Amino acid sequence: MRLSCQTLGEVPASVARPSYDARALSCGIVHLGLGAFHRAHQAVYTDDAIAAAGGDWGIVGVSMRKPDVAATLTPQDGLYTVEILDAAPSYRIVGAVRQALTLPLEPQRVLAALAAPATRIVTLTVTEKGYCLDGAGALDLGHPDIVHDLAAPEAPRSAIGVLAAGLARRVAQGAEPMTVISCDNVADNGARLAAAVEAFAARAYPGLAAGSAASFPQTMVDSIVPASDPASHARVDRVLGMTDEGAVQREAFSQWVIEDRFAGPRPAWDRVGVEIVADVIPYRRLKLHVLNASHSALAYLGLLRGHTYVRDAIGDAGLAAFLDGMITEEVAPGLPDLAVRDYWAGVRRRFTNPAVDHRLDQIAQDGAQKLAQRIFPLMIANARADLPVARLGQVVRAWIDWSATQGLRPSLGDAAIFPPEIRSDAGLRAAILETAG
Fold first, then answer.
1. Which residues does residue 251 pair with via DSSP β-bridges, in sequence order?
2. Where are the domains of the chain?
3. How far apart are CA 156 and CA 62, in angstroms?
């Protein structure tokens, strides 16, 4: 027996389930990047908002590359379980995802969903590299996906091409403006997404004023979401008494902060824990330069020491001391207006959660894009202020050394990876190159 709307009544009472009829829910949100993080984070908040205040805020989820998620969720009527990993784990079934599409297979259905008058919100979790930005944070017009999308704008591959095409259709149909919310770890994510869409539209859809067709608020998201594995699926199946091939797992902690700049209506997110604020930047700086930077440090240094999970790496006394020193001596002085040490204390506790199997090799992926957001800006700012950078440099060196174990050794002279401030600064180069491998 498999989880679906038909079998939902057979789920044990210990498992929370939607308080509304998911089958009757219409869609008002399109999400690009239907991976585990969205299903464990934004979709959960939306599920709670629907339960709290109603509204047709069902989600059309779009996988950007592969059909796996759609093939998993469609037979389950979009239902899936979220396993909350804590001292005593808990389980809930989410009903907010009502359709699961795959962009390469169904581009016209995706564009139709974006253009639908009922769609008022678009969210994205496409990772840093999914924005097709260059080293300066602008749209990379030479990126293969952007080159393709400019040549074939009605069959887009990239999130930027999809958004521009959807907005063009909405304007042509006279639909109301919508709100587009980046939920990725990109500095100034709303502004950079807006600029990228506008740069694309200027070439593919001359005359389209993307800034008038949508608002692009800044945002910050946080929750540790390990990749699901056979062990986590087996735990969920035992609790449900049936199979759930779409189950995801996450830690208990969750945070979502959105700039109060919406183009139209929104779910009652503010009633279920989402922070709607005037300025997201302080929240994002803490997340990027404390939690995310520490994750990267643990990933590369920990993998080189033979560790597998975050909890193992933070349990290594040498690595824990390294991180404490990095935060105290380099990150906190570089962010003097933020409560870095208090925030780090909470993050450090989260890293030690024995129930969370967060793989270091999962965090290590796409290091060039991640370090460009998490490490490089702080190194550059610290160097300008004559503050220490040695440990931050050691993280970068560890990434270079780990990359070499994967068959590719990045060069410090590569302009596609390292910003000019690092390539041209002898002190920053030395901080990277002269640390122990």
1. 85
2. 8-278, 282-433
3. 13
**Nearest one of 421, 423, 386, 391 to 293, comparing CA atoms:** 391
CATH level 2 (architecture), domain 8-278: 3-Layer(aba) Sandwich (3.40)
Those residues whose C-beta lies under 8 Å from the C-beta of residue 142, and which sit 6 or more positions away, are none
Mean pLDDT on 154-177: 96
* Residue 437: predicted pLDDT: 38
DSSP element (H, E) containing 31:
strand 27-32
Cα–Cα dist 163/196, whole Å: 10
Query: What is the residue-wise DSSP string for 251-288?
Result: ES--EEEEES--SS---SGGGTT-EEES--HHHHHHII
- Over residues 22-69, the pLDDT tens digits come to 999 999 999 999 999 999 999 999 999 999 999 999 999 999 999 999
Q: Which two tokens stand for residue 234?
A: 């087996």
The string of DSSP letters for 87-120 reads SS-EEEEE--EEEEEETTT-HHHHHHHHH-TT--
pLDDT, position 436:
42
Q: How far apart are CA 122 and CA 59, in angstroms?
A: 9
Residue (of 263, 171, 156, 166) closest to 216 by Cα position: 263
pLDDT digit string (tens) for 381-392? 999 999 999 999
> What is the biggest distance separating any 2 CA atoms in the chain, rounded to whole angstroms?
65
Other CB atoms within 10 A of residue 117 CB: 12
β-bridge partners, 249: 83
How is domain 282-433 classified at the architecture level of CATH?
Orthogonal Bundle (1.10)
Report the candidate in 348, 268, 256 with the shortest Cα–Cα distance to residue 57.
Answer: 268
**Tens of pLDDT, residues 273-289:** 999 999 999 999 999 99
Report helix, strand or coil for 431.
helix
> How distant, in Å, are the alpha carbons of 138, 159, 173, 379 from that of 193?
9, 10, 23, 24
Helix, strand or coil for residue 324? Answer: helix
pLDDT at 115: 97
Which residues, 6 or more positions from 265, have their beta carbon under 8 angstroms from its beta carbon? 28, 55, 120
Structure tokens at 78: 């979009």
Q: CB under 8 Å to 234, separation ≥6 — which residues?
A: none
Whether residue 435 has pLDDT greater than 80: no
425 contacts: CB under 8 Å, gap ≥ 6: 380, 383
DSSP annotation of 26: P
